[in-house]
# Entry
Amino acid sequence: MASQADITEIEAAALRSDRFRLERESDWKRLEGIVSELEKSRLRKISDEDMLALPGLYRTVASSLSIARETSLDAATLAYLESLVQRAWFVVYGPRSSLWAWTRNFLGGGWSAAVRGIGLDVMIALVVMVAGAVVGWLLVASDTEWYHALVPSQFLDTRVPGASREILAKTLEGAADGSGLSMFAAYLFSNNAQVSILAFALGFAFGIPSLLLMVHNTASLGAMLWLFHEGGLTLEFVAWLSVHGTTELFAILLAGAAGLHVGRSMAFPGERSVLQAAAEAGQRSAQVMAGVVLMLVVAGVLEGFARQLVDDMPGRFAIGGFMLALWLAYFYGLRRAEKGEPQP
Amino acid sequence: MNQAVTARLRHDRRERLMLTPEGIALPVTIASRGTRAGALILDLTIIVILMIATTITLVGIAGGTAGRFAQIEEPGAIGQAIEFLAVIWIVAMFLFRNAYFMYFELGPRGATPGKRMTGIRIAARDGGRLSVEMVIARNLLRDIELFLPLVFLASAGDDGGAAGLAATAWFLIFALFPFFNKDCLRAGDVIAGSWVLETPRRKLETAMSVEKPSSDSGGPAVDYSFDEAELMVYGEYEVQTLERVLRENRKEALSAVRDAICLKIGREPNETDPRAFLEAYYNQLRALLEANMRMGQRKADKHS
# Structure
């Protein structure tokens, strides 16, 4: 509301557009104050009244701008209003204020909906991963020299072609005491998360590098599987692997599929423009990737602790199988979000 | 859409129009590539300093605890304490590398400290809400755009050759990506549907017609009045240029503009206060043009 002093000032203004401006200036100043505090994240300095008034003030000032553009030639006022509306727009339409709300929505259906949304890419990535493992097995079976090419050198301890059954069995045993496990888990998580981020990011080159990376990773898995098969320890190895592998491989599968989804949308955008298609795919894949990092935390804990501490085969199978069932049920069983369309 | 706004867009290559959900066209300015590079270098410096500081602190704590436990002779506890610190270190390094940009860009200013210092921020390209997914997507790509090729380059640095060449090419493809599209998008922006804009900031200046007429010559106030024919030689562009000249208030500019206007409307430039003359001309011209605007007649500049 304009005070008495302001009213005399308004009457003093010669131009109609200046009177328009002086009448509304207090609203503009109030919005500017709120926006400035919000930009400095000083939420406590803003009163509840101001917070509630913010959307209304934003619309008032936005309409002031529309009117001023049609009635006023005061360039300074127009520039001020444009910048104020833009700043307020950033605040009103900024990132969702509460990360907590986003997390709840993400876990309560957004994530599984995004995973279902890239179903075709998950199928392609799964086929590629299985094919990679088969190729790894076949290559090593035909010529054991391939083993050294496929399995990274830091894995090369006692697990080499020609190693005896006892030596191989020993690598599958759990550690008796628990020292060093949490560090191991943290290291595994950090490493795996970086690989899966890479698998996703490489999708930018139309998805092909993502697929190559997945083939490379699963080929070394196939090679190791062949090695333990030769030692007659196939089941033991699978049990050892399944504790964390069902979670970890699933996460890498999703990361590769997310990368492929982006690449495929850019290569075949359909009716949309390439930029629009890429943005839509990128935002859906980002949800999947946030989940992938979460899965890798779980996988790191399972790999670091559960695998080393649980030593018997049925126990390991039980953990691995349970985790796989859990993920499948979560992604494909929980269809609550299907009723309302998944959030854009 | 407003004629004046569209006219202004033609002047600046980095200006774009963004449509808010309320249907208001807002002019925004794309951040220049140089500013963005500067912001990135600032952020990387901050990250490296944070990493080094964390490492030094943790090593210091580790040394301290090792000394403390050595006195009470309990080797198992030392191991666990050191292990715990190692876990913190691994997680902290992962977060600095991956979460630094996300954390700050999700804040109300939509900008990392480096971007804040250079006065830029990120926004959604379609004028809608900047979502968490966009921020995640644009920052995951940083890994292949920046960190990975640099690591490759560092590891291939010794032998050079094909690997070094490939790493350099990889790095350049992404570093030069913003030069090959008009909105200066980097690969992460393409995926996320975001762009980087300059942060607007402008103070409200006083209304022109409220200001007291200045009379520094001290002479008798001359009543300037112009008829419509004298005013209608100019349009909106000129009235706003005149406003700028009046606000800057530089003596030589004022008399130069006064002389130009007098020449145009065929008056004799008398030796009175040029500012009073220009203020009177500005107010009357703006009143006339705004009155015509209300009737739906606009005059963009003196040529129309």
In short: Residues 214-220 of chain B have pLDDT under 50 and may be disordered.
